[in-house]
Write a structure and sequence with these properties.
The chain is mainly α. It has one domain (14-88). The protein has 3 helices and no strands. Helix 1 crosses helix 3 (50-57). The longest helix is centred in the N-terminal third of the chain and has 14 residues, at 14-27.
């Protein structure tokens, strides 16, 4: 089963989101020796991009954590600026 969701938010404190995303990246178990960039460069890039930072800290699995018998198996979170994409308006099902 798939659940599609569009959530509109206002970010009132972008620096808090950026810091949280950076903190979570620092705490992640990532082998940086295999990456083209180092940890501090990656943190700086993430903290400099509000859209990417917000997508990184949104926890989609929490939508179902209190539902008995429901196990999240994965998901996709992405963010956009501007008006909603018509594909995600209520009642529109052509993207399914």
């Amino acid at each position: 089963m798939q659940i599609y969701c569009r959530l509109e938010v206002a970010v009132n404190d972008p620096s808090t989101i950026a810091k949280l995303a950076g903190q979570q990246l620092r705490e992640a178990d990532i082998n940086w020796s295999r990456k083209e960039e180092d940890l501090e460069e990656a943190v700086h890039q993430l903290e400099s991009d509000l859209q990417e930072a917000l997508a990184c800290v949104v926890e989609q699995h929490r939508m179902t954590e209190h539902l008995p018998g429901v196990e999240p198996r994965g998901g996709l979170v992405f963010t956009t600026f501007g008006k909603p994409d018509d594909r995600f308006r209520p009642g529109f099902t052509d993207f399914l």
